[in-house]
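ok trying again, last paste got cut off:
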Amino acid sequence: MKKKLILASGEVFHGTGFGAQAETEGEIVFNTGMTGYQELISDPSYCGQIVCMTYPLIGNYGINRDDYESMEPAIKGLIVKELCDLPSNFRTQMTLDELFKKKNLSGISGIDTRRLTRIIRNQGSVKGKIVDVNADEQTAISYLNTAESPTNQVETVSTKTAYAAPGRGLKVVLVDFGSKLGIIRELSQRDCDITVVSQNTTAEEILLMDPDGVMLSNGPGDPQDVKGAKEMINKILGKVPIFGICLGHQLIALACGAKTFKLKFGHRGGNHPVLDLEKNKVAITSQNHSYAVEQKSLENTDLIETHIALNDRTNEGLKHKIHPCFSVQYHPEASPGPEDANYLFDEFIEMMHQFKNVTV
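nice, full thing came through this time. structure:
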């Protein structure tokens, strides 16, 4: 099944298709992880994107039932150098190709992923389309350069109805902007009583649940497109402890008067070093984001920068000067990736206990 990848900038890559035969299009980004392709495919933050894996061999340990981060993948496609069709792992249940066929996803293998990554690094993230080898290239290029980018990714991936993950400990409301199961897993391991709510849940509805804390999850797209989130955050700020991850981090910044901007090619992978400015320690982190908080815009806010990325010195963490609220740009729940930053969930637990003791 010969296919080709066409970029909006005019470059064309020829390769072999896998998964569904259907064409697919989206923003092309690259991920530097050596493993974790199953978690990546099922991460809602990749909604609308085609991911290029920089590690050359993908699929070598297959697909299993335990490593999904959501029920249904939101990714638009996958680009790999070499696709393994004979995985070797005791948990393997199917191949990557079989999963893509079941989920009606399209991928392409056998292309020069190093060259593609260099194009993205030089030009920034670009739109692309995986098509049949006989498809007209100029038609595809013209379409990619005129089609509007989606702005409703969070609405697409967020839960439509609230649901519970019961526990006997602290009561946490998790606002689902595209949450990974890893967040629920980390809170559940700390015996939290979790209620997951939709991205458009109001502050009044959240406070009626009488939570001990609120988590703002990760999610896809531009934080400016998430309507109502800033108002909700402002209304719960100071009334309940808040912990934000990735998109949740950006939304806290916007709610407090800071600004965000789109990175040239984003941060994606499980090998990104981050410096904790308060502890003067470095953690290797899992990341997946296109946008970042503008550091200069923090000057006239009540937010303090707590973490920075060592690769490009961009913001990676914030805390509020007055209220119990902190956030990080990276993923302390990992999945995939290292667990260096796992302690942040413990800090959130401690923050909730301290707030309860003060308000009782």
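cool. The longest strand covers residues 260-276. The chain is about 25% helix and 30% strand.
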